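Tokens in:
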């Protein structure tokens, strides 16, 4: 979590503490209020069952706002900001630490208001991001995967809980889990149905496991989010439906490139980073908003469909990166990926300096490299 806390769009990590003993009465009241007022009740144990010897891990996080499921979506500007803000956050996570969320449903995206919109509307511009005043934060990394600064891979082995993949057939959220596992095992985009995801199917993994970085998993959840947001606006009815028709017309190409039936050679997205490059190329997000300085060069997918003046502006912004110190960037601070590279270079330099003062071993045999230690992660059942 420390690795992600510095990235915009990820929850702020304040600290972790071990606490021993039974919770206080205020905790009982909070649990009772949620348990008896919610439709499904609490998934957590009644705190009265804990005793004085119970030890808790308390993680303090920043306020991320309201979960998307409870947020009353009202305007197209809000839809654009939630969707594009999520794309930006996922792409930043990919570039910084090969991040995959793997569980990005409507209860793991939070929205909060940062006040008035920071962007002035220009009828001639294609810009779509920044007009609602909403800010997006991704939460709950229980199923996520990331590479730390030291090269260690943190992940949850989802094979330990196959029930994650055995939710209702046709349910959009559970389909996402099945799409991920099918892609991991077969390297295709064809989703295997619920009945396929059994213990016997583990023999079809082709040697793949959940520690691998598969950025296409983020595309799966981006497609899920787009469908979810559109459904929320359809329920409002009225004039907003005309705006939604315009939105659907504008995003035909975007939706096509996320469709699992689209081939890679025809422009299918393989990562959230490619989705970000596409929305920048369309002018929906500016380079300044995405803070792409210091990241990999964008491919500008879909530039053939853009006006010449838009192409020229995008290419100009791209060339301007070469005029900015790549180590410092436009914001005046290094990125997590840059700091990770600096740490690795510093470690290598220190090791080389130390080796100059050590006499070589008499044996010519090389010592085996230590295996990368992976920290165990707790299992999480599908909601």
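Residues out:
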């Amino acid at each position: 979590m420390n690795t992600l806390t510095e990235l915009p769009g990820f929850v702020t990590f304040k600290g972790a503490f071990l606490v021993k003993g039974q919770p206080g009465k205020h905790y009982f009241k909070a649990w009772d209020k949620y348990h008896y007022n919610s439709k499904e009740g609490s998934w957590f144990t009644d705190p009265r069952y804990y005793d004085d010897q119970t030890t808790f891990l308390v993680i303090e996080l920043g306020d991320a706002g309201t979960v998307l499921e409870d947020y009353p979506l009202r305007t197209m500007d809000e839809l654009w900001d939630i969707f594009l803000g999520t794309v930006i956050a996922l792409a930043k996570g990919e570039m910084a630490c090969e991040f995959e969320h793997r569980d990005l449903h409507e209860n793991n995206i939070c929205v909060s208001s940062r006040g008035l919109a920071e962007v002035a509307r220009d009828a001639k511009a294609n810009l779509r991001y920044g007009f609602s005043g909403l800010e997006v934060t991704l939460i709950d990394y229980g199923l996520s995967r990331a590479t730390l600064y030291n090269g260690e891979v943190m992940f949850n082995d989802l094979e330990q809980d196959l029930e994650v993949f055995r939710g209702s057939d046709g349910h959009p959220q559970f389909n996402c889990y099945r799409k991920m596992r099918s892609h991991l095992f077969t390297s295709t985009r064809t989703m295997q149905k619920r009945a396929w995801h059994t213990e016997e199917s583990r023999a079809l993994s082709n040697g793949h496991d959940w520690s691998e970085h598969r950025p296409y998993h983020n595309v799966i959840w981006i497609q899920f989010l787009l469908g979810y947001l559109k459904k929320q606006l359809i329920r409002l009815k009225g004039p907003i439906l005309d705006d939604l028709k315009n939105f659907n017309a504008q995003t035909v190409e975007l939706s096509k490139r996320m469709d699992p039936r689209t081939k890679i050679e025809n422009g299918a997205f393989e990562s959230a980073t490619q989705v970000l490059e596409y929305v920048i190329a369309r002018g929906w997000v500016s380079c300044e908003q995405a803070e792409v300085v210091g990241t990999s060069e964008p491919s500008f997918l879909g530039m053939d469909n853009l006006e010449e003046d838009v192409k020229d502006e995008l290419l100009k912004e791209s060339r301007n990166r070469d005029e900015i110190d790549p180590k410092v960037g436009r914001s005046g601070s290094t990125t997590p990926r840059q700091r990770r590279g600096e740490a690795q270079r510093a470690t290598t330099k220190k090791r080389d300096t130390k080796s100059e003062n050590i006499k070589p071993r008499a044996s010519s045999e090389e010592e085996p490299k230590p295996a990368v230690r992976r920290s165990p992660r707790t299992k999480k059942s599908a909601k």
